[in-house]
Amino acid sequence: MSASDLANRLSRRLAQDIVAGALEGGSHVRAQQIADRYGVSRTPVRDALICLEKKGVLQHYPNRGYFVAEVLPRDAITEFTEEGEGRKDEYYQLAEDWMTDALPEIVTEQMLRERYELTRAKLNEVLARAAREGWAERTEGYGWRLLPVAKTGAAFDEIYRFRIAIEPAAMLEPGFTLNRDVLEEQQRIQEALLQIDVSQTAPESIVTKGAEFHEEIIKMSGNVFFVSALERVNRMRRLMEYRAKVDLVRVQAQSSEHLQIIDLLKRGEIVEASYFMRRHLAGAQTRKSPAAWSWSDGARLKRD
């Protein structure tokens, strides 16, 4: 593969990750970071960054470097969403098989390549994304361990009941300390979500921003056990959240309530914010009831 071909391929992969929400708007994109992410040298990465700047996916600032554009051009979203459909289907097929117990806990790369008819490079992309999203990890040699996730409607509901128990309580911890910089940043993110075009936004991006809001709030408790517990259950529910219907009403309700929690916290009304958090999570549990259809073939998801 020539240097220019590799740079073009890298630019597509990076753009697809950005459109999918793996990198947030405003994120600093460093050449070494991207080289490490995709296992290549810095030279084709620099060419890929220049290419994405021309498409409006990245912005370049002298002496500062490249940053993900706060608002992605519509034509770029369409282009890279369509190009990534095959990769998305392969990722979701693997996820679907794990969710429906069609795969063992320990798998080998050779077995996965044969099962899904993937090249080594394509499989590496799929597994890298699964690892980033917290439900796969490499074992010794060429093996991978698929980690526990919520696989049923009952498990999904149990996770939300657990969150209802811990998140409001964390806000009442003696060590709870407001981080106003974090609140300002989360307010910016949630206000931006109120303006998005749901049809042009990857569900993964919306799910990720929602999870990050709750993790940033619970970090203010100063209690590492609350934080680690929420991060773990967020990883476990992520795949089933992707199944839940993402529409404008749901996104606006979620972001509006997040903004109300931020407003209460900024006013110092911690007890009221804790109570509102409980109501918010209970409402989200109802709004995000798992969809009945699977990603791959329309088979009904079993509920217990």
Automatic annotation (TrEMBL):
Q: What single Pfam family name could you report for this chain, choosing any that match?
A: GntR
Return the InterPro entries for the record.
Answer: GntR_C, TF_FadR/GntR_C, Tscrpt_reg_HTH_GntR, WH-like_DNA-bd_sf, WH_DNA-bd_sf
Q: Where is the HTH gntR-type domain?
A: 4-71
Q: Does the keyword Transferase apply?
A: no
| Key word 4Fe-4S present | no
List keywords of the entry alphabetically: DNA-binding, Transcription, Transcription regulation
* A GO MF label: DNA-binding transcription factor activity
User: TM spans, by residue?
Assistant: none
- Write the protein's name: GntR family transcriptional regulator
